[in-house]
Amino acid sequence: QIKAKANESSKLQRGEILSLQALVGLMWRTITRARKLEADQTTACKLAAGLRKRLDPTLPGEYFGSCMLFMLTEAKVGDLLGQDLGWAAQALHETVLRETANIGRQRLMNIQLYDANGFESSDVVVASSPWFEMYGSDFGWGEGLAVLSGSANKFDGGISVFPGKVEGGSMDLK
Predict the structure, then answer these.
(1) Who contacts 16 (Cβ-Cβ below 8 Å, separation ≥6)?
(2) pLDDT tens-digit profile of 3-32?
(3) What is the rounded distance in angstroms from the CA atom of residue 24 to the CA atom of residue 22?
(4) What is the count of structural domains for the chain?
(5) By residue range, what is the domain housing residue 20?
(6) What pairing do the DSSP bridges indicate for beta strands 171-173 and 158-163?
(7) Which PANTHER family match (predicted)?
(8) Using CA atoms, how far apart are residues 136 and 145, in angstroms rounded to an integer?
(9) What CA–CA distances, in Å, run from 32 to 7, 41, 49, 107, 167?
(10) Beta strands per DSSP E along the chain
(11) What would the pLDDT profile of 81-127 be if each residue is shown by its tens digit?
């Protein structure tokens, strides 16, 4: 329903807003509203994205490290809250479309280490992925009942996304 509402109110020229983009847009607006920031202040939504499949040429199979970047979408608080969900989701969607393999490879040349303390207090940071199979892992004790993300990297505005337990594409946010 959130995805349908976002697509209905957006003004996209190409493609469709994805469920994750709609949900993150909703959370970005909600967290920003709760913070009671000034209308002229800039807020950012930083969406972690894996680059393995986006790079051309792709990374060799032997590459063992993480390969990701944060896709940055910025807006004035007044614009974000003055528009509807479709506007926020469309802004996130357009950021994803803009991040091409060439941009990703250029940004990878500047290695950065991310620290939860390095984000602005007006930011929302989204990590993990609803596409990582979490509940299907069985280590001899049976199928998982819940996904817990531990105590690391917990900060105001940090969101971890996991696939939901409910079949059909649900997502859990922590």
Answers:
(1) 7
(2) 999 999 888 876 789 999 999 999 999 999
(3) 6
(4) 1
(5) 1-173
(6) antiparallel
(7) FAMILY REGULATORY PROTEIN, PUTATIVE (AFU_ORTHOLOGUE AFUA_3G14730)-RELATED, HXXXD-TYPE ACYL-TRANSFERASE FAMILY PROTEIN
(8) 10
(9) 21, 11, 22, 28, 30
(10) 42-50, 68-76, 124-128, 158-163, 171-173
(11) 999 999 999 999 998 888 765 565 666 666 555 555 567 788 998 88
